[in-house]
Amino acid sequence: MVRHYEDFAVGESWTFGTRRVTADEIQDFARKYDPQSMHVDSEAASEGPFEGLIASGWHTAALSTRLLVDGLFEDAAGRGGLGVDDLEWRTPLRPGDELTVDVEVVNTEPFDDDRGQVDLAVRTTTQEDDEVLSMVVKGLFARRNDGH
Amino acid sequence: MVRHYEDFAVGESWTFGTRRVTADEIQDFARKYDPQSMHVDSEAASEGPFEGLIASGWHTAALSTRLLVDGLFEDAAGRGGLGVDDLEWRTPLRPGDELTVDVEVVNTEPFDDDRGQVDLAVRTTTQEDDEVLSMVVKGLFARRNDGH
Fold first, then answer.
1. Helix (H) or strand (E) segment spanning residue B98
2. pLDDT digits over B87-133, tens only?
3. Which residues form a coiled coil (chains A, B) (predicted)?
4. What is the third-level CATH fold of A9-142?
5. CB-nearest partner of B62 from A33, A80, A81
């Protein structure tokens, strides 16, 4: 069964993971999208204020999204995202960390005739329960009467 | 000269780009981080509600970040990001689009003895001036008295 807008209920929640992150992966992402030394240069990073390599915050968001897609969106009639509120990077993500994502539906409302908006509070933590990301993603999903 | 917290002034603005995006790149990113059919499967996407492949919103954010890093952060004493407010994906990013990023300093305030917070309003547009992303990034930068 494909999950539509009508199948999301406020208060519903899920936990997805885990996903382990490597130094190589952190550096690969950052070389393409965020080549600051704290993300790409292990040696410089170990001398720097974070005392070691840390992931780009956008990499943390991308990894959280992957867990969300595999766990929830894969079988849903997703119609893209409107945006994100209150994104916070509280603790840096480091090589070897293992990510878990907790998701809760915090709001649902009709968007237009074909689509509904579902707001998901996302919280990504490490094996030490350090919070590396929190945000509210505003997604669109097809309504059951959608032609597509 | 390395740009520190004290060197950012509210109202200061820059424009960076352009950066052209390919279908291959859109699919590569999405296969790793956001493997929904609208981002990875050209054929399914052309039959879908967006009538063609569109980039993951996180890819749009990552590409915007790259322009920001190359243009502004490369010579700055960046100390990581606190988070992001009001991220909106208004128009989908599509293969062949060419991105420009407009950035403006909207707030600066001390964070602690070593670091200051700089809020940057970011607006990413295509060659048609369609807005594919807007957000406020809350970054930290070293103060001039920082020991690092």
1. strand B98-110
2. 999 999 999 999 999 999 999 999 999 999 999 999 999 999 999 99
3. none
4. Thiol Ester Dehydrase; Chain A (3.10.129)
5. A33
